[in-house]
Amino acid sequence: MNARLLPLIGFVGLFALLAFGIHWNTRHEMNEVPSPLIDKPAPEFNLPLLFDPTKTLGSKDLRGKPYLLNVFGSWCPTCQDEHPFLMSEGKSLGIPLIGLDWKDQPDNAKRWLAHFGNPYSTVIADEDGHTGINFGVYGAPETFLVDANGVIRYKHISVLTPRVIEQELKPRIAELLETKQ
Amino acid sequence: MLPELGQFALILALLLACVQCIVPIYGAWRGNTTLMSVARHAVAGQAVFVLLAYAILTYAFLAQDFSVAYVAQNSNLSLPWYYRFPAVWGAHEGSLLLWILILNVWSVAVAALSRRLPQALMARVLGVLGFVSICFLLFTVLTSNPFIRHLPALPDGNDLNPILQDPGLIVHPPMLYMGYVGFSVAFAFAIAALLGGKLDGSWVRWARPWTNVAWAFLTLGITLGSAWSYYVLGWGGWWFWDPVENASFMPWLVGTALIHSQAVTEKRGSFRAWTLLLSIFAFSLSLLGTFLVRSGVLTSVHAFASDPRRGIFILVFLGIVVGGSLLLYAIRAPKVSGGKPFRMLSRETLLLINNLLFVCAAAMVLVGTLYPLFGDALGVGRISVGPPYFGFMFVLLMIPVVLLVPFGPFFHWATADWRKTLRHLLPAFIVAIVAVVLALIVFRGLPMRALVGTAGAFWVGIGICLYALHRWRTAPAGRRFSPEMIGMMFAHFGIAVFVAGVLITTAASTERDVRFLPNQVQNIGGVDFRFDGVEKVPGPNYIAEQGNVTVLRGNRVVATLHPQKRQYSGGEQSMQTKPAISAGVFRDLYVALGEPLDADHASDPGKSAWSLRIYVKPFVRWIWFGGLCMMIGGMVAAIDRRFRSGNTGGNSKTNADAATSATTATA
Amino acid sequence: MKRIITALLSIVLLGAILTPPAYAIDALPFKDRAQELRFQQLTKQLRCMVCQNESLADSTASLAQDLRRDIFNQMQAGKSDAEIKQWLTSRYSDFVLYDPPLRPSTWLLWFSPLLLVLIGAMVLWRILRRRAQQPLPTTDSGEDW
Questions:
Q1: Directed axis angle between helix B272-295 and helix B324-332, to 10°?
Q2: What gap in Å lies between CA A11 and CA B324, rounded to an integer?
Q3: What is the mean pLDDT of residues B139-158?
Q4: Cβ atoms A94, A177 nearer than 8 A
Q5: Closest partner residue to B414 among C95, C128, C136, by Cβ?
Q6: Is residue C130 scored above 90 in pLDDT?
Q7: Of the candidates A164, B324, B561, B634, which lies 20 to 30 Å from C57 by C-alpha distance?
Q8: In this structure, are strands B574-578 and B564-568 parallel, antiparallel, or unpaired?
Q9: What is residue B200's predicted lDDT score, i.e. its pLDDT?
Q10: Mean pLDDT of C60-86
């Protein structure tokens, strides 16, 4: 009897795995890949400001306090969906919200921000996309939470919904601000 | 009004499927002939309504009825009429209806062509097919209704994905489904046998032709899919180990083991457990494939839009059908291994090794395909498994198969004289070595893989020819080559052709992305290509930039190629690259258009330099020739007279029965 | 809501597939044929993060084009395949490799097929030995097809 039950037992295992797969699918976007940069130092960057290309903002300048880096582009329709949430919640986060204009034409980006509003404390332009690559960005929008020492603590792929902001971002930001003190 | 009729037809079909399932099986259990005879009528009835529903959906596409949401999502006003037929199966709901239609085609065929079957067996087989129908019809009616309306009707629809607007769409899915779904017949026979309790192997004789034909169709479907992606996708590849490709390959691997195992069970009475299990596995993998493609559990280029709700439904069906059949197997499977005895060295042993290797190959593909999911479950981050893994493992597992194939026909049942066989096969071995040496001399620097491919191809190919010769000499006239044997020879020869194609093309292809000025000639992979510029060419629902490339040998024009980049006028602005291929028996030339490279001539693409991708692919067609040979083999084997009449030449049903009773008596 | 977002993210990714022309064809100025071959082999083994079912060699996504350029530049600068892969995995994780690296998490993957064959072979051997002890009936020539 034992050997003949083996296929059934094997199938039960497979069934469990597939059921898990469906469960996982409902909770995760299948295209999202966890970042290898969590708890690692953020890549160094030094990019021109979108609105004043003669000046630059670098990762070194941002040391000392945590910040959020939000990757967006005027070409990205999903970023439009995220935008209202950034406008309403951005200021209340308590830390700078830096916009990384990724693989975009500066004029298009300026027009986009003028049209939809500018939720960012500063916007830097990554025209050739290199800084994005260094951060492991593969689609927009993506958001990184970097702590005071320049270490990436959290990455969110896709829209920062109010739920994510409440449940994932705000607690982490509070923690970082506390330890800083 | 019609679409609503279509919905109604599906519901009626579902009711008839319920009748088809419950009544005959109950009748068979009780020995009630009237109830059992309901099966055939129920099959006919269900088929009528399924056909009606399918015809209505097709009509909706032809008439461009955009009030039907499915039609609006998969066609638009500019879609040429000949693509409206295959557009029916262009997405989830319609392809599911195609599945059901083909299931009915098989059911009708089985009902019509099996009049000589014992009635109880017939009733159970049709009943099981009815159960499968119930599952799919229920799934369609509850979650995937193709007739849902979108009111008010949209003026125009989305376009059918440009990649699908190709003759390949007309043939690949139906052939593939004929195979996939066809394994349900072998499954039904196995379950019917388990339900009936008579497990002596007589049921296998009836199941064999159906299984061979299903396997042949699946081989054809996979071959077509490979050829289609080769000439449509623009990257010169023909197999990507994509989860959905794997979903069709796994049933094929198990199906291959199954057709061999069935042969043994029918002729020798042994391998009964293997045959039962493989019948269940083959169809289970077909169902698993359906699940993987439609549940969103794995991402894939092929996958239909995912929906966890649908995933749950299919998973439940999978659980009931596969779990139920494996439970039935655990309870009812033969307790003693029957059949005629055999020695260590015998054809039976070779076929056991064959079974083992093919099942392990299928398991390997399953593990690799599902491993990312497993990784997610373990929480170790996204694991990626791709062609380097599958290609390596598969070749490893198939090396013993390729080495042993020529021995199969020469080894006798029960005991084999290996010395004699080796003597028979010596010429094949010698030719293989000579071929490799010659190849090394003539084509300097040929990579190892091409050499191994050459050796393997000659070993198997000549081995088959040697067997044919041997059979011609030693068998009495008139009984030399049965269709079954011819089928075997074709199929095994197909292996040789396939191996040659795969290994040579993988190792010896040339691929280059090159910048061409107008009228420039460059030599790539030993062939001269001249770029003659780009012009604009209109099509039925697109505008194309067409490149003109001439292939020269010296001053002689060998071929002209016209790769295109098409801008479709569909709902979404979609651009598609259509490569141009000069097909040849021994080599393919393949050109895809890139980008204009001169900023100065951006407005006048005709004068600009362009980037082109050029492939020279030797022996690539042999991959599909091999597949076609295998398909022919399967079809030819199925028409063997032994399956149609009750009487056969050598081993008949009675032999297998006698053997079983003899062994159970001595055990 | 989750579904809308899912759909929208897919559109961003899809947009990358459907809109750009055939950027997968970059006529890069390779040093020699060997380097070109090496580039082709390497990019075929890497996954495009945007169109996740295409290799970096075949993907038409803009990011894929950027990464191919970067890889080309690194090759020109003398970096080895291993260094380039390391550069990619430190940014995109192992997911970017089609060839799963041998780690404890992939032991099952790499060893299970052969283990299965071995176990199967052992079981088969035992069964065959037992079977071989049954007497062969003399009337069965074993020749028949």
A1: 170
A2: 11
A3: 88
A4: yes
A5: C136
A6: no
A7: B561
A8: antiparallel
A9: 76
A10: 93
Place C144 in a pLDDT band, splitting at 50, 70 and 90. low
CA dihedral (B231, B236, B241, B245) in degrees, to 10, reads 0
**Are the CB atoms for B302 and B242 separated by under 8 Å?**
yes
CA distance C88 to chain B (A): 14
**Spatial separation of the C-alpha atoms in residues B313 and B420, rounded to whole Å:** 56
Residue in chain A nearest B273 by alpha carbon: A4
Gap from B154 CA to chain C (nearest CA, Å): 21
Which pLDDT score is estimated for B602? 56
Distance, CA of B193 to CA of B431 (rounded, Å):
46
A89 token code pair? 């919640």
pTM of the predicted structure, to 2 decimals? 0.91
Q: What is the ipTM of this complex?
A: 0.88
Does residue B201 surpass a pLDDT of 90? no
DSSP SS3 for B109: helix
Sequence-distant (6+) residues with CB within 8 A of C34 are none
pLDDT(B450) > 60: yes
Q: Provide the 8-state DSSP code for B359.
A: H
- Which residues, 6+ apart, have CB-to-CB distance to B210 below 8 Å? B106, B110, B182, B185, B186, B189, B638
The C-alpha angle with vertex A81 and arms to A88 and A141, in degrees rounded to 5, equals 95
Report the DSSP pairing between strands B610-618 and B510-516. Answer: antiparallel
- What are the CA-CA distances from residue B361 to residues B91, B271, B610, B624, B629 (Å)? 30, 19, 44, 21, 22
Spatial separation of the C-alpha atoms in residues B40 and B138, rounded to whole Å: 21
CB C62 within 8 A of CB C23: yes
Helix or strand (DSSP H, E) at A26: helix A2-27
- List B510's β-bridge partners, or say none: B616
A21/B297 CB distance under 8 A = yes
Inter-chain residue contact A136 with C91, CB threshold 8 Å: yes
- A7/chain C closest Cα distance in angstroms: 14
Looking at the DSSP assignment, which residues form a beta bridge with residue B581?
B590
* 3-state SS, residue A63: coil
User: What subunits touch chain A, counting only 3 or more CB pairs under 8 A?
Assistant: B, C
Please, which residues have CB within 8 angstroms of residue B579's CB and are 6 or more apart in sequence? Answer: B231, B234, B563, B590, B591, B592, B593, B613
Q: Which chains reach chain B with 3 or more Cβ–Cβ distances below 8 angstroms?
A: A, C
Inter-CA distances, B376 with A18, A20, B118, C100, Å: 12, 9, 50, 15
Provide the pLDDT for residue C112: 95
CA distance to B174, B207, B406, B441, B527, per residue, from B446 (Å): 39, 46, 26, 9, 17
User: Rounded to the nearest 5°, which phi and psi values hold at B54?
Assistant: -65, -40
* Residue that has been written with the tokens 């007589």 in this structure: B202
The C-alpha angle B117, B122, B127, rounded to 5 degrees, equals 170
Mean pLDDT of the B150-171 span = 82
Given this model, what pLDDT does residue B491 score?
97
Question: Nearest residue of B to residue C136 by CA position?
Answer: B341
SS3 B382: coil
Peptide bond into A141 cis (omega under 30): yes
Kindly state the average pLDDT of the residues B546-572. 85
Q: What is the pLDDT of chain C when averaged over all its residues?
A: 81
Q: How far apart (Å, rounded) are the C-alpha atoms in residues B60 and B72? A: 10
Query: What is the average per-residue pLDDT within B61-86?
Result: 89
Q: Is the dihedral of CA C133, C138, C139, C143 positive or negative?
A: positive
**Which of A127-136, A158-167, C14-23 has the least mean pLDDT?**
C14-23
Residues 101-140 of C with CB under 8 A from A: none
- The mean per-residue pLDDT over the stretch B376-380 comes to 84
B288: closest CA among B360, B366, B220, B210? Answer: B366
Spatial CA neighbour of B572 closest among B80, B133, B160, B101: B160
